[in-house]
Every structure is written in C-alpha cells, then in structure tokens.
Design a protein that fits this description.
This protein is mainly alpha-helical. Helices cover 62% and strands 4% of the residues. The chain has a single domain, classed as Arp2/3 complex 21 kDa subunit ARPC3 (Orthogonal Bundle). The chain starts with 9 loop residues before the first helix and ends in a 9-residue tail after the last helix.
C-alpha cells in the first residue's frame, strides 16, 4: 500500500507530513519508556524483519497480491510507540533506496501504514487481551484479530485522505468499496503472518513480547484458606538466550529477503490494482529515486534477476537493521542518561 507521488495533492501531502512528524516526535518520547535492555536490540531486528516480509507479496485474488504492513506485528512485539518508529524506518529506507513509495508522499505513507495500523491494532489487541483468558494462546489470538482489522483500517484511512486530496476525479464510493474489499483479504494474510511470528517468539521468550508482559502468573500459596503470592517467587528462566533469538531472527530475515522473495507474487498489490482499475493513477509522478542503484528491489547492472533481487533484499535488511538499531540504541542511551543518579536533581 505504498502511495506513490502524484496520488495526493501537495497541500494534503504536506499536511500529512506535519501529522507524521508530530506522531514521530511523540513516538520518540514514548519509545524511551518502552525500550530497555531486552527490547532495544529487538526493535532494530523487528524493522529489518518487516522489511524482509514486505518483499513477499502473496496472491489474494485474481491478478492482485498483498504484503505485510507490519504495524500490528511491531506494536505487539516492541510496543506501540516503538512500533510506529519501526515501520517508519522501513518506509524511509524503501522510499530513499528502493523507489518504493513517493518521497513527497512519505507523510501519507507514514500516517497510513505506520500510525493508523499501529494505533488501531494495538487498541484492538489490548482490548482483547483484557477480556480473553490470561495466557500465551490469548496473545496469539488477539494478535491475529488486531492485525486482521489493521489492514482495512489503513484502506479506510487512505480513502479519507484521497477524498480530501485526491488528484483525479473518481467517485469516492468506488474507491472505498474497492480498497476495503481487497484489503480485507490482504488482512487475512497479515493476520496469519503476525500471529505466527508472535506465537514463535512467545513460545521461546515471552518476556521479549511487549504485549505479553504481565501475563506470567506468579506461584500461589494457600494461607488460611486464601491464595496469596508466594514470597520471592520469580518467573521461570528463559529457555532461549536473547542472542539466539536475535541471530535466528536476522538469519530468517536474510533468507526471506535474499532467497524466498524471488518466488513472491508478481501481481500488483491492492492499492496498485485499485489505482489502475479505477483510474486514480493517471497523475502518478516519476519517483525522485528512480535512478537509485537499488530501485525496484534489484541491483543495477546485475543481469541475473534472481541474484539482483536477492542482493537487493540482503542489502535492504542490512541497511534497515543498522538504521533502526542506531535509532533505538540512541533512545535507549537517552533513557539511561535521564534515569541515572547524576541526572536526578539533588534533594529529589
């Protein structure tokens, strides 16, 4: 659902840029509270994993494909504020290096794909976790539902943005019906990928899943007929080290982007298909990065398509994890500095 340049007019693109900038500033502050010694390294990996999986377009209907948006996955794994930043890093790398998503439309894409999906999915997720039985299975079920609803929500958000700033004269009802219809199908794929990924992480390291925190039950003792927490009861030790989880995630991302992506569906994604069928792409502008050596997810001057796409995917994963990890490492250091004894005024 990467919106190219030319779909939305300049004033509305600028307005969404202001909205995106404000949301990113808020997320930078919020992420400092979410990031700790466990989640800070994981957050950069989550961004790289989302980049890799977004290369895997899956068929959803005749001549139409879909791909992961990633807002729900990021929010549940590392928190909503950090999740917005993860998806935004991915969108920035895709726009600058791979000519995917317009640069003047970056505010539109961040608002739609990072902010809307994260806010909607995390609200649904937290609501379901509160009403479902406490346990890991409930987290996975809630992840599925949250991801499923986040995609059509993003389609609705794009439709509203188009209603205000669309550059073509197409009936809004046609755009809304087509966008929501196809993205409900894409949402099923999003939900499956999100639930499987969250389930895999929570099976080995539930403490690394932001959305699962607080669900571990403490040992209970019966005292005078009442159940009370056992004194000094500690959670069960992690079965898999943090480093192993990180390495496994990185290797998985590299394999998906460098090899599996070659077999992804070549059909246009939901937005591209709707834009072509309904005629809202008639004023699409050339991408500012169309001459990038990695434009179109291929390495320039590498003639073998499989090798070209694989190298581009590996480079993309590497650049995204470096950029994301740098941002989250800096935020983690800032939090540590803010909470250090030296930063607390004397007498507080």
């Amino acid at each position: 659902m990467h919106v190219p340049d030319g779909f939305i007019n300049a004033p509305v693109s600028a307005a969404t840029g202001v909205v995106a900038a404000g949301a990113l500033a808020l997320s930078l502050r919020g992420a400092r509270r979410e990031l700790d010694e466990r989640t800070a390294p994981l957050a950069g990996l989550v961004a790289a994993f989302i980049f890799a999986v977004q290369m895997l377009n899956f068929p959803v209907a005749a001549g139409t494909s879909g791909h992961l948006l990633g807002g729900a996955l990021a929010a549940i794994l590392v928190g909503p504020f950090t999740g917005v930043l993860c998806v935004s890093v991915v969108l920035l790398m895709q726009g600058i290096l791979f000519a995917d998503g317009g640069l003047t439309a970056l505010g539109v894409n961040i608002t739609d794909m990072a902010i809307v999906t994260t806010v909607v999915s995390y609200a649904v997720f937290r609501t379901l976790v509160k009403v479902l039985p406490r346990g890991r299975r409930s987290v996975t079920v809630a992840s599925f539902a949250a991801a499923l609803l986040s995609v059509p929500a993003a389609a609705v958000a794009f439709t509203l943005i188009y209603a205000v700033g669309g550059t073509t004269d197409v009936a809004l009802s046609k755009v809304a019906t087509a966008m929501v219809g196809v993205h409900v199908l894409i949402g099923i794929g999003e939900a499956v990928i999100t639930a499987l990924t969250v389930g895999a992480v929570i099976a080995v390291r539930p403490d690394l899943v932001h959305g699962a925190r607080g669900l571990q039950q403490r040992l209970k003792l019966r005292v005078n007929g009442e159940l009370v927490d056992a004194p000094g009861a500690a959670p069960a030790p992690a079965r898999t080290s943090h480093r192993k989880v990180w390495i496994t995630g990185l290797v998985t991302s590299l394999v998906l982007a460098g090899f599996v992506s070659f077999y992804a569906s070549a059909s246009p994604d939901g937005l591209e298909k709707v834009a072509k069928d309904k005629g809202i792409d008639t004023r699409t502008k050339a991408h500012a990065s169309e001459d990038s050596p990695l434009a179109g997810y291929g390495v320039k001057d590498v003639s073998d398509a499989r090798l070209s796409g694989g190298l581009a995917g590996v480079i993309g994963v590497g650049v995204t994890i470096v950029a994301g990890s740098g941002v989250f490492w800096a935020l983690r250091r800032r939090r540590s500095a803010d909470t250090s004894p030296a930063s607390v005024p004397e007498g507080v």
